[in-house]
Each structure stands twice: as C-alpha cells, then as structure tokens.
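for ur thesis appendix - Mechanosensitive ion channel. copy paste whatever u need, i formatted it the way the template wanted (i think)
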Amino acid sequence: MDFSLAWQKLHQIGRDLMLALPNIVFGLIVFLGFLLLARGVRALVQRITRSRKSSHNLPLLLSRLAYVATLILGVLVTVTIVLPGFTPASLVSALGVGGIAIGFAFKDIFQNFLAGILLLFTEPFRIGDQIKYKDFEGTVEDIQTRATSIKTYDGRRVIIPNAELFTNAVTVNTAYDKRRLQYDVGIGYGDDIARARELMLEAMRAVPGVLQDPAPEALVMDLAASSVNIRARWWVDPPRQADILDAQDKVLEAIKNKLAENGFDLPFPTRQILFHDQTETTDGDRRRQREGWPAGSGDVPVARAAAYGSEPLENTPQ
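the 3d part is after this line
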C-alpha cells in the first residue's frame, strides 16, 4: 500500500500547525487577559451599583452581564487572532446555518438563563429570603444563571431551575417585616367562652416577641364534636423560621398553662357507642324507636317477646 499521499497530508497539517502556533499562543495570552479584565469589570460594576439601596440584586445582575459580555468579546478577539480569516460575517453565516439545531439543543439552558436575569431584575425574592416552592422550603443561597439554590431548614441544598421559579407560584415568607401565626385551642362546652378568650389574650400579650400592634386575637372558629375551638392569632417580627418556631412554642405553652390554672377543660375527642338489640315492640317504627338511648323513667316500650309471645308478628322485623 502506498502511504505517500497520507504522509504528505500529515506533513502539510504539521507545517500549518507550526505556522499557526505563534498565533495560538498569542491568542491564549489575549484570552487570559480578557478573563482577568472580565473579573475586574465585574468587581467594578458591583462597586458602582452597590450604592443603590433600592435594589439588592441589581449589582449582581449587572456585574454578571458585564462579565459575560467581556468574555464574549475576548472569545471573538481570540478567534480572530488564531484564525486570521475569521470575520463577524462568517460567524453570522455559521449561526444562520446551525441556529435552529443550536436553539433546540440549548432551549432549556437559554430559558433558564433568561429566567435568571428576569429574577435578578424584577426581584420577586432576594438572596437571603426564605421561600417555599412546592415541597421545598428554605433560605435562598444564590441565584445563578441556570438555577437557584436554597438551603432547607434541615440543612440540605436544593437546586431549582430558574424557569420553574419564574413561571410557577412561589411563597416568599420573608417578603414583609411581620408575619401572623395562628393555632386553634379547644375548650369544653361547659366553659365560659368570653373568659377563655380573655385569658388567651393575656397569655399571648405576655410572651416576648409577640407584637402588640397588630394586637393578638382570639376568635371562636368552630363548634366541634367535643370542643369549642378558639383560634389564637398573633404577629411576630422578624418572620424567619427560627423566630416563628420559638414564638409558637412560647405562645402555646403560655395559653395551655393559663387555661389550666383557671380551671378550663382542654377536651380531647370522645365517642359514645350505643348498643341496640332490636327487641322492643317499637323497633321498625321510626317515630317511636329509641335507637339504643336509655329508657329513663317514662313509658318504656314492651319487649317483643312479652307482647307477642314466641309467634312473630306479620310485617315486623325478624
């Protein structure tokens, strides 16, 4: 076999590579310079925009955009140095040919990137906020170009794509300075409702961390099967999860102790079972049968056996 043609091709490629080696080295040096420049531009933009107090995420957004723009410029300059025949027109032509394929391949990436920019610009939540999305709840650690990372209350990290957070409902627990908490407390039907509400309000007002404005409330919410349910509502500041759990622990303890000290019953669900043997003459007559309730001292229905003997009556239950 004649390998002379292949050898000539390899030899030509080697010569072209040696001729282009200075351009490649110089292009890499230029790209490293642009990389350092991009970091410097990012830091400068953050320093300039940090003085704007109305937006927390704006410095982060502008600095990232400046960083990406500087890197793109560095890539174009590097490619121009390494490939002298490269022009922006050739880049546009190449993108025009493969634009559709690239769009389909990187659709999710572009979607999450744009959603990340919009999240940083519109600020529905900020880094450090506590949010809830579907089954995930925690503190926002970072809003990146592709996804947002949150730290759950039990110490785990959850990565959520930006497009999902931008297009779906997200609960921001720390959007406002105050947050209202509530809990239903049941008292017995024989207890004084007005006095119970008064004691619950006293207990809530005495707990440190419970705000006096807005004032705590105690509202009757339900006449349940075994209790009268009164809803205790109170406000806390700040509304972070640790403060909420601490306030709820103290409020419930104070309410329980206050009601118990004043003789209030805190009933638990009960059920009464009535046994009915269906042996009375009134059985089958819905207007007269007792359904298992005690006979009392009034007129007690006669037992079926005593009234009719051993012979069953016609049209009576067997």
